[in-house]
Design a protein that fits this description.
Elements lengths: L1 H18 L1 H8 L22 H5 L19 E5 L5 E5 L20 H54 L6 H47 L8 H55 L39 E4 L8 H14 L5 E8 L4 H24 L7 E8 L6 E6 L1
Parallel strand pairs: 4-5
Antiparallel strand pairs: 1-2, 3-6, 4-6
Helix pairs in contact: 4-5, 4-6, 5-6
Length: about 425
């Protein structure tokens, strides 16, 4: 019993000694810094617990990712939680997802490569079409400015002719030359439009080829679904390009046709205007502008028939020009009569008959006939200068006992 009591007393003493260690260290033991132990202790600084101590769990840093070796022979290696390496079968990589803009890089397939190549070609074609359209707009602007200058010059000439002027006025001759230069410039612009139209036609051929090539790519094997989706987007883009090229080609065709018709009419008007300047009288627009179709079977130019039958007695001539002096003034009356006939019937044709007096000796008769033919050719040349096509006039010659001087008679056929 006493032995158990001694063990208990020893344990109690050890416990009390451990509990008083803090007091003994702080109050009774001498300081090693040389300070007086009896001085009051300085205030202690409390350090707050760390996050790990607050939650009662030790704080651990995030794990560091270990590099994974590339897959070999069809497997992909992944690190496991136990540190060992596991192998799983690998699968083909998925095709790239398209961006918000539509097309992306190729997927590595034949169809994907075709999509990328066609996309580049469509981009170049669109740039070419935009360049052609800008050239067309510039040509239109140039044509408008040239036409304004041309009509300004023509209006000045007509204004002088309207109030009356001298034949062959040098000022109007100079203005006519300038107007002819502007008209030639319009002709050059029409030629440039024709060249541009041929270039756009070549672009149309390229666009048609790209569309067929894109549609044919659907039947190529070994493509991803994403490849076909991009093919659909590309086909829509090519279709828009084809529509734009076709519209541009149609506009060019209409412009060329309209400008060519305008150029032909104004050239005829310039010929008639030159005759008006030469005579100092205002005639009007070219007679060719009232002509719509050629008359089949009409004799052309100076092909004078050898003494055809005389006109019937009941056939009244439209115009009679008597050459009783060297240069009779007949252009204004001739233009007015022919112009009114064309207004009533645009497809009308004319018979121009050279009539010589049937009197005198054989030599005089031959001389009168030759002079009458020459007069008819002069009238024919005047009609041509006024814009009437030569195939709308048939020339013939005859003699008559009812005329006293050489005449040129014009009949409506």
């Amino acid at each position: 019993m006493s032995r158990h009591l001694r063990r208990f007393s020893l344990s109690l003493a050890l416990t009390l000694g451990a509990g008083g260690c803090s007091f003994g260290v702080d109050s009774l033991w001498p300081t090693l810094t040389g300070e007086d132990p009896r001085t009051p202790p300085r205030a202690r600084t409390e350090i707050p617990p760390s996050p790990g101590e607050r939650v009662g769990q030790p704080f651990a840093s995030p794990p560091v990712a270990r590099p994974v070796a590339p897959a070999q022979s069809g497997v992909v290696t992944l690190p496991s939680s136990s540190g060992t390496v596991m192998a799983t079968p690998s699968f083909p990589a998925a095709p790239p997802q398209p961006s918000a803009g539509g097309f992306t890089s190729t997927s590595g397939t034949v169809v994907g490569a075709k999509v990328g190549q066609t996309r580049e070609e469509v981009g170049r074609l669109n740039a070419s079409v935009a360049q052609r359209n800008a050239a067309l707009q510039q040509l239109r602007a140039d044509s408008v400015q040239t036409a304004q200058r041309f009509h300004s010059l023509v209006a000045g000439i007509n204004a002088r002719l309207q109030v009356g002027t001298t034949p062959g006025n040098p000022i109007m001759v100079s203005q006519w030359d300038q107007a002819q230069g502007e008209l030639d410039r319009i002709g050059n612009e029409v030629s440039r439009m024709n060249l541009l139209a041929s270039q756009v036609a070549a672009d149309a051929s390229v666009a048609a080829y790209l569309l067929e090539s894109t549609r044919a790519a659907y039947s190529v094997a070994g493509a991803f679904e994403e490849d076909h989706r991009q093919l659909a987007l590309l086909e829509d883009e090519v279709n828009r390009t084809v529509v734009g090229v076709d519209r541009l080609l149609s506009e060019l065709s209409e412009d060329v046709s309209r400008q060519s018709s305008y150029l032909g009419n104004e050239r005829s008007n310039m010929i008639a205007l030159s005759v008006a300047i030469k005579n100092g009288e205002l005639y009007g627009a070219s007679l060719a502008n009232r002509s719509f179709s050629a008359i089949p079977g009409a004799r052309i130019g100076s092909n004078l028939a050898a003494a055809p039958a005389a006109p019937a007695a009941d056939r009244r001539p439209l115009v009679v020009i008597r050459f009783d002096r060297a240069r009779p003034d007949y252009e204004q009356a001739l233009y007015t009569a022919v112009s009114r006939a064309l207004e009533r019937q645009p497809t009308v044709a004319f018979d121009l008959v050279a009539v010589a007096p049937a009197r005198g000796s054989a030599a005089e008769l031959a001389q009168n006939s030759t002079a009458s033919r020459r007069n008819a050719e002069t009238v024919m040349r005047s009609l041509t200068d006024m814009g009437l096509p030569p195939d709308r006039v048939a020339l013939s010659a005859t003699t008559s006992t009812s005329v006293q001087v050489n005449e040129v008679q014009i009949f409506v056929r």
